[in-house]
Specification:
Strand content: under 5%
Order of helices and strands: HHH
Shape: globular
Helix content: 55-70%
Structural class: mainly alpha
Radius of gyration: 12 Å
Number of strands: 0
Distance between the termini: 13 Å
């Protein structure tokens, strides 16, 4: 999985450091929820996280934290692979 902390500030809409921290925290929550068997909560978190970076791919661009389309594509593919796993 791409390290969110290594993404350039330009990939984010604003407050890149805050966004990076929030994304990292949400990913950690998802992993913990999956490991503890709380799959409904993990699914909800994944859907929420995914909605923050899907404006280039049919989602609402007005709520994206990540606005760079290539970065969205990379992260969405990784999230989808995580869900499939």
């Amino acid at each position: 999985m791409t390290n969110i902390q290594e993404l350039p500030p330009e990939a984010f809409d604003k407050n890149s450091e805050e966004r990076k921290e929030s994304f990292s925290e949400k990913l950690a929550e998802i992993i913990l929820q999956r490991e503890t068997g709380d799959l409904n909560a993990a699914i909800h978190q994944v859907e929420n996280l995914r909605s923050k970076m899907n404006g280039c791919f049919g989602g609402n661009p007005n709520n994206d934290w990540i606005t760079d389309c290539p970065t969205q594509e990379l992260l969405l593919s990784q999230i989808d692979a995580l869900v499939a796993y």
